[in-house]
Amino acid sequence: MRRVAVIGIGITKFGEHWGKDLRELALEAGIKAIEDAGIEGERLDAGFVGNMAGGSFASQEHLGALLADHMGLNPLPVTRVEAACASGGIALRQAYLSVASGQHDFVVAAGVEKMTDLDTETVTEILAAAGDREWEGFVGATFPSLYALMMRAYMLEHGATEEDFAWVAVKNHKHATKVPYAQFPREITLETVMKSKYIATPIKVFDASPITDGAAVLILAPLDEAYSYTSDPVEIVASGQASDTIALHDREYLTRVKATEIAAQQAYKQANIGPEDIDVAEVHDAFTVGEVLAIEGLGFFKYGEGAKAAREGLTTFGGKVVVNTSGGLKAAGHPVGATGLKQAYEIVTQLRGKAGERQVKDAQYGLTHNVGGSGATAVVHIFRRV
Amino acid sequence: MRRVAVIGIGITKFGEHWGKDLRELALEAGIKAIEDAGIEGERLDAGFVGNMAGGSFASQEHLGALLADHMGLNPLPVTRVEAACASGGIALRQAYLSVASGQHDFVVAAGVEKMTDLDTETVTEILAAAGDREWEGFVGATFPSLYALMMRAYMLEHGATEEDFAWVAVKNHKHATKVPYAQFPREITLETVMKSKYIATPIKVFDASPITDGAAVLILAPLDEAYSYTSDPVEIVASGQASDTIALHDREYLTRVKATEIAAQQAYKQANIGPEDIDVAEVHDAFTVGEVLAIEGLGFFKYGEGAKAAREGLTTFGGKVVVNTSGGLKAAGHPVGATGLKQAYEIVTQLRGKAGERQVKDAQYGLTHNVGGSGATAVVHIFRRV
User: Fold this and answer.
1) Which residues between 141 and 160 in chain B have a beta carbon less than 8 angstroms from any beta carbon of chain A?
2) Do B243 and A56 touch (CB under 8 A)?
3) Cβ A62–B241 below 8 Å, yes or no?
4) Which residues are B47's β-sheet partners?
5) Does the first or last residue of chain B, that is N or C, have fewer Cβ atoms within 10 Å of its Cβ?
6) Looking at the domain assignment, is residue B85 inside a domain?
């Protein structure tokens, strides 16, 4: 396998883009990434685009061809990949593997989702397609309710409180205040979270990530060609992907995400490092309990100890590992197909040392963790400053 | 690049499966393929599943995880890929590339679509997501109407008649009579086609492929390990993929499909053969004009001469190249995400010499040609008897 570097990154503002459609968002992030890499479109060999539900959100499938066309890259083979909310991570992984294996040299990894053209109820219904439609969705289980089961089980098993989880939201909103592309770059108090309405007890509105439009794009290249395009390449040193049961009720545990654990083990093994080596991580906090399960599954904290991390300042600047400097899905926003690439955008920015006010000092290793459904797919990537 | 072989194939009956859902169809074809290969599930390294619109047809996305789960293959990383009606071909290509490049050894390539739970109008609307929704679908263009523009332009440019195209349907239905999995295994007459209703002049009902449920699965392996699993491996010797404009009105030609031409050139170059070496081909006849444009774009016939091929018997047994022994999309059926894998299933069956009454004698080279939308994506694979 060849060594692979990120040579260009681009992102749109995350939020409600009433004036831009799916293709315009992807195009904006794509052009920024191509400009950042300073590469000619003709040099590109292939592309992968992560998108969960263009068909349902925007009546548009076939996004590979759409993007190749509107980015002026025809006849470039661009392939859409989908793994629910992990679609972006999967696009990055396919792009990474295609360069690492020598299939291609210069590859686009894109993620995009346009969600705000529909009402919240319809969006919630569409997102339920990430779970087991026959045995979860059709009997009324939405994603807040599935994550509520995990949160409740965790509270029962480990004696954690709703406040523990609320601190995750407070921490991520604080991080977001320094993030130019974040949807909600403003601080919130513990009281704001605790007094917000229950959407599926014990999950409250402020435990949940928002509905978001946005796109993020990376350009990958063989490391030995990267310096022709950038003075600060960031290497992708590992990629892991694992599946678990599509339905939550079929899982071995409610309080651990096995796919995360397996994908992380694959990645640590490939990178030949351990969780203690990671300086900065972007993890999948679609709900606050998601971040807690993630930081345990990734090995940053022991089982049952993740819930206290945000409260005790262990996952913010100066802590054990800085988690979600972007604000996470919670405060930066969660355009589902773009999230995995946004995570990578943020980690590359950190490892380039270009994160400004939110820079994690001397960050050497970064990690991204992207989950599909309630944990049926997990994708983990590890990045290193070269 | 390593040499890659097909070591197992499986397919469901194509048709209206009122009693089986998406996962059951994929599972049925998957188990057949695994049994055909005689491989243990634990040996598999990865999977790719082609599906166009599970979200819209069946309210189910995240098919990679769903299939890994229901085929008992967790934590196998299985990734859904989508390129409209070329989704199956793209799944095959990703699986092929992952073995050829040495990323993985044993890989599943699956395709599935469940379309018949909805009424025809809704299905037509969902399929319009394969084109340019903003500039085609929203102004009323459906796929029959887009292909009608191509057919009309071809008739004008080359003096072809509606009867020329009708012969394609007659030929493919005749082929389907020998095909156990075909949706419509019955002969039709020229009169049946010509007297059928116009759905978008000059396209009639019998120029169009039907709405179909079905699944097809292949198992790929490095050629040098293939003989441990099968006595008759078939090699995949080339894979090509190209994009063109998503909207038909942006194309350079209405009477040629450029993405087909480019993907075919890539494939012939990789295989180091020409169109004259192909004995049997499965091409994308979503509409009869599609087959005509395909056999020209693939280089079997000169521009303007493809329309006469079916009438003159040049694309059936004993002709120049036998096209669509499966009955094509027209008579075997077109479960969109499964079609590319069905094409590969048929070609492998031919090259194994196991096609029974429909066997093409001494077939050495076979080709599959899968198109997304009105030609925005084309995928071409070439197979060889080892």
Assistant:
1) none
2) no
3) no
4) B78, B108
5) N
6) yes
Looking at the structure, do residues B108 and B147 belong to the same domain, yes or no?
no
Q: Which of A306, A51, A385, A326 is nearest to A180 (CA)?
A: A326
| Strand-pair category, A46-50 with A107-113 | parallel
Instruction: Please tell me the predicted confidence (pLDDT) of residue A1.
Output: 85
Nearest CB neighbour to A62, from listed B70, B75, B376: B376
Q: Do B79 and A80 touch (CB under 8 A)?
A: no
- Per-residue pLDDT tens over the stretch A82-136: 999 999 999 999 999 999 999 999 999 999 999 999 999 999 999 999 999 999 9
In a shared domain, residues A144 and A57 = no
Q: How many CB pairs under 8 A join A and B?
A: 188
The tally of CA atoms less than 13 A away on the side-chain side of residue B301 is: 23
Residue B1 has pLDDT above 90, yes or no: no
Query: Looking at residues B153-179, what average pLDDT do you find?
Result: 98
Please tell me whether residues B291 and B342 are part of one structural domain: yes
**Tokens 């859904």 found at:** B80
Residues of B catalogued as catalytic: 85, 334
Mean pLDDT of chain B: 97
Cβ of residue B58 closer than 8 Å to a chain A Cβ: yes
Q: pTM to 2 decimals?
A: 0.97
Domain with B269, as residue range(s), is 140-208+236-385
Q: Are strands B107-113 and B46-50 parallel, antiparallel or unpaired?
A: parallel
Whether residue A105 is found in the same domain as residue A182: no
* CATH number of the domain bearing residue A82: 3.40.47.10
Residues in Cβ contact with A68 at an 8 Å cutoff, skipping those fewer than 6 apart: A47, A74, A75, A76, A77, A78, B243
Mean pLDDT throughout B238-248? 97
Q: Which of B48, B62, B113, B253 to mutate to test the interface with A (most CBs of A within 10 A)?
A: B62
Please indicate, yes or no, whether residues A183 and A51 belong to a single structural domain of this protein. no
**Looking at this protein, which amino acid is placed at residue A40?**
E
Q: Where are the alpha helices (DSSP H) in A4-105?
A: 22-37, 54-58, 63-70, 87-100
